[in-house]
Amino acid sequence: FNKYLEKDSNGKLKNNLKIRLNKRKNNLSYQANPNRDTLIYYLWNYAYKARHDDEVKPSKKPYEFKFNLIEDKFVKKQMKTKAIMSYLYFQDGHILIDEISPKERLGEFINNETKFYSLSMSKSVVSYILGHAICDGYIDGVDARVNDWPIIKDSLYHDQKLIDFLNMSTGDQKYIDEFEDSTSAFAYEGNSISMTMSLFFKGSVKSKSSYNYNGFVTQLIINYIKHKTGDDYEKLLNKIFADKVKIKYSILPTFSGGTGQGKLHPNLNASRYDWLRIAKAIMDDYQNDTCVGKYLKEIHKRRIPKGSKEKKEPEFNRTKSYGGQFHMDYPGLKDRVVFGFGGYGGNAILIDVEKSRIVVLNSLHYNNKKFKYSVKKLLIDPIKKGKWKNF
After folding, report:
1. β-bridge mates for residue 145, sequence order
2. How far apart are CA 224 and CA 221, in angstroms?
3. Please, which residues have CB within 8 angstroms of residue 133's CB and are 6 or more apart in sequence?
4. pTM (2 decimals)?
5. Residue 203: strand pairing partners
6. Cα separation, 233 vs 235, whole angstroms
7. What one-character DSSP code corresponds to residue 23?
8. Which residue has better confidence, 302 or 266?
9. What's the pLDDT at 179?
């Protein structure tokens, strides 16, 4: 970024880009149709500017992928005009498609170590951490009631089962709506849980259990995990990501570190291959029927319908069901067990845990206009049909 960014005489950072900033928030609005300079700025802002001290260090023996690459002209074509930064397709133990945005688009600023930022994709990672906390004996199971955490006492969340947190069905729809600016989840997620409870949820009453997608519930889950694991929390993260997932580069989770009452947030910066490593570890657990694999099968079995809320979500998340912080039952994938991550900017990971197929798409921006990539051809069809090549 050096040729675009420099410091003035006072040492303040300036740039020579023609940027159209979102003045309301520190990210691109869903409706925006940014020029390349604006995309460059937000890539820098998400992947390079946002740094913090908390990290999970890489494995001493990272998992190394096998490659048997094929050319997919449609993937290349989409990456020339959309805001897709990286696209990986994994099948039967091999990476078959491996693409980075063209240099003239965004690829000038991306390599295999670039840590792509994610908001809601990290919800699924939080669920995976919870599965390990359960299997290591810190938490009794998905039916455990959250009644031993003083921070949420005198709120609708007190004494509810973890499965309802996992399925976004805590009955909080009268208080929080992810898709309405007037009750934006960002107002809640920007504070510690203790502050949010005192401002918004003190004396709140649970409504009927139904799917109500929001980030605050995930924030509750990750902070509850830390509450239950105590001083072992960081050790648990290292056990998962360094020892089991075998990440190659450090990952930067905002669900690491932190002090005080509920200050962890479910966001994650990770490299393109490390996102794939996380997805593969989930698939391996499911297939090998480990304790965490049994947890994954349980949350899939207990998934709930999204109902009318489905149509409010962007197309890459528009599934029939939701289970354990994963999107499930994708259109066109009937009777297939697919665990889906999905988040801000069009970031998406689909894992067919039975057919050993994974798509990892890291995207900077997505909308219903010029930045709408083909969900069917990039996400659904590869999982449904596979990409065949002799190994």
Report:
1. 161
2. 5
3. 139, 225, 228, 229, 236
4. 0.93
5. none
6. 5
7. S
8. 302
9. 75
State the alpha helices, DSSP H only, in the chain: 36-43, 73-81, 121-135, 162-166, 185-189, 193-196, 215-229, 233-238, 272-288, 291-301, 375, 381-385
Instruction: Look up residue 37 and give its amino acid.
Output: D
Which contacts (CB < 8 Å, 24+ apart) does range 227-232 have? 227/149, 227/151, 228/133, 228/138, 228/139, 229/133, 229/138, 232/138
pLDDT digits (tens, 9 = 90+) for 126-165: 999 999 999 999 999 999 999 999 999 999 999 999 999 9
Residues 228, 231, 232, 235: what is their CA dihedral angle, to the nearest 10 degrees?
140
Cα 126 from Cα 143, distance rounded (Å): 17
CB atoms within 10 A of CB 198: 13
- How far apart, in whole angstroms, are the C-alpha atoms of residue 389 and residue 376? 21
pLDDT computed for residue 182 by the predictor: 44
Q: Is the pLDDT of residue 37 over 80?
A: yes
Separation of alpha carbons 92 and 118, rounded Å: 26
Provide the pairing of β-strand 304-305 with 326-328: unpaired
DSSP 8-state assignment for residue 335: T
- The secondary structure element, H or E, covering residue 168 is none
